[in-house]
Design goal:
By secondary structure, this protein is α+β, with helices and mostly antiparallel strands. It contains 18 helices and 13 strands. The relative contact order is 0.10.
Length: 548
């Protein structure tokens, strides 16, 4: 089966709002469909993380064809039963932890197969003002949609900052089943989705990304959440989807127009009307969410705010302030809490064992810095904040290096650094935030193209890694530094055949295996290391007599 063509057909059929999909469960056990689902799961950065069955993608791939055949048979026989997710806890920026449910590899592949069916259908229906976990959409699009509405020309300064009380905990599974029935007649497909719901797939939303506040975990849960909340999106379009002439007439009557922006379960309603109009809309919104979604708006967290007072949305602070010309303008700012979380992450990343190589430590820090900087680079105060935080990161790493090498700062600078700025050790440079500051958003928050009905490449947002400091648990202390030194000593040349080496093909051989040492770490001594190309390394290893 041509998977892309089939997905396009689903999207085309969905253009008829009355069309109901039947006999699509069979797509799940099509071999090409399953293989595409497996490939997507294997390409994910979490593929080496095991579920309750302790199997990673590498284990699955040891008998790949047999495992795919097993999935195919159980799905075709309608005997597939999802496993419960493995509950684990990952660090938050403030030192506490968050729960995260990790499905098995088999469940992830089947969930991906479900997503591949549901997404082309519902992308036809979804509102242009919902941005979360949809192809070719990202958090910054949602932020910019709100930011633009708060411009001095649009003047949507009164904002309903809405929060649904425990969305993933309180989502009504039976109501979701009813919503699905409007489009999906295939009972076998709905039964499988129901089985995943009962296995706790939606509960994975209890883990929220520290920068965006949005739910993480699971593959099919985000599209199911969007399906559930689409009723709210369509209701909001009654107030937002108006022509320029209609908006002008509304303003002439002294009433306000509206902009709606949703990312996952975090959403805003903005108006250029008066506060009392926003208060009336909030009452209507509460009733709509209660009656249509069987959910509740949080009394404590839902609030009506003015742009002059500011509010936070998806990790940014949006606030209207005076500008240099004496007027006012809305600014995107970095919240103080976000800076505090960043500092805490850096502290955690520069903790742990001092046996970890400097290169590995810098690599872990770079993941924190690069991810955070990329997310906040559009903030108006990024240049100043980034400069201050660069200084903080530099000194945290320097403190770690002094403890690792047991020398003073001066001695580290004199004897251990390749460069001070950017701080570089053994050829590995610390990423700096400052060059990223004050970037200009060049995307568009207006998304009219259907991702399955155009030739565009479908891209998915990848939010920054939450716990790159796991390098602190690295199994081979100091290895990266020693490897670098060996390659540098050997002039990046294979010592067997003389071939020039690069980062892509360079390998370092242990003349004496680690099993030959009482302390396996001694195998990483420089005199025991030799630079080789991949071919020569294989030849040498094939002739090795291992010490028992």
């Amino acid at each position: 089966m041509d998977v892309d063509k089939m997905q396009k057909k689903l999207a085309v059929w969905a253009k008829d709002p009355d069309f109901q999909f039947d006999d699509i469960y069979n797509l799940l056990y099509d071999r090409d469909w399953l293989r595409r689902a497996y490939q997507s799961v294997a390409a994910n950065s979490g593929a080496q993380t095991a579920g309750v069955d302790s199997r990673t993608i590498s284990d699955f791939e040891e008998d790949l064809e047999e495992n795919l055949t097993g999935l195919q048979r159980s799905l075709k026989a309608e005997e597939y039963a999802p496993s419960p997710s493995r509950r684990t806890y990952v660090p938050k920026g403030d030192g506490r932890t968050r729960p995260l449910g990790i499905p098995t590899i088999r469940d992830r592949i089947v969930q991906e197969g479900l997503r591949m069916i549901l997404e082309p259908i519902y992308e036809t229906d979804f509102s242009p003002w919902s941005y979360g976990f949809r192809p070719n959409r990202r958090t910054h699009d949602a932020i910019m949609a709100a930011y633009t509405a708060m411009s001095e020309s649009a003047k949507m300064f009164w904002v309903i900052d809405a929060d649904i009380e425990g969305f993933f905990d309180n989502l009504d599974h039976q109501r979701l089943e009813q919503v699905l029935q409007d489009r999906i007649r295939d009972g076998k497909l709905r039964d499988l989705i129901w089985a995943f719901l009962k296995a706790g797939v939606m509960e994975e939303g209890t883990y929220r990304h520290s920068m965006t506040g949005t739910p993480q975990g699971g593959i099919v849960s985000p599209v199911l959440a969007n399906i559930y909340l689409d009723g709210l999106d369509q209701w909001a379009r009654r107030f937002t989807d108006r022509s320029r002439l209609e908006r002008k007439r509304t303003r002439n009557k002294g009433k306000g127009n509206w902009r709606y922006v949703r990312y996952a379960d975090d959403f805003l309603l903005l108006t250029n009307g008066r506060r009392r109009r926003a208060e009336k809309m909030e009452s209507r919104l509460r009733k709509q969410i209660n009656d249509r979604l069987n959910l509740t708006l949080s009394r404590r967290k839902t609030k009506i705010v003015h742009a002059n007072d500011g509010f936070e949305f998806l990790g940014y602070r949006l606030k209207r302030k005076r500008d240099g010309d004496g007027g006012k303008a809305t600014r995107l700012l970095i919240p103080e809490e976000a800076k505090t979380r960043f500092r805490q992450k850096v502290k955690t990343a520069t903790g742990g064992s001092y046996d970890v190589s400097a290169r590995a430590k810098i690599r872990a820090l770079n993941a924190v810095v690069r991810g955070w900087g990329t997310y906040y680079k559009y903030a108006a105060d990024a240049p100043r904040a980034f400069s201050n935080l660069d200084n903080f990161v530099w000194w945290r790493l320097m403190e770690w290096l002094t403890k690792k090498y047991r020398v003073s700062v001066r001695k580290v600078i004199e004897n251990r650094l390749d460069r001070r700025s950017p701080l570089t050790v053994n050829g590995k440079s610390l990423t700096e935030l400052s060059p990223m500051g004050m970037a200009i958003y060049t995307g568009s928050f207006r998304k009219d193209e259907h991702p399955y009905l155009t030739e565009m490449t479908r891209k998915r947002e990848e939010l920054p890694e939450e716990n790159p400091w796991l390098i602190n648990l690295k199994e081979r202390p100091g290895w990266e530094d020693q490897r670098w030194k060996a390659l540098k000593r050997d002039g990046w040349t294979c010592q067997q055949c003389g071939t020039g080496l690069s980062k892509a093909n360079a390998e370092v051989h242990h003349e004496r295996a680690s099993t030959g040492y009482a302390n396996p770490g001694d195998a990483n001594r420089l005199e025991n290391l030799t630079s080789l190309c991949e071919r020569c390394h294989k030849e040498v290893e094939s002739e090795r007599t291992h010490v028992k």
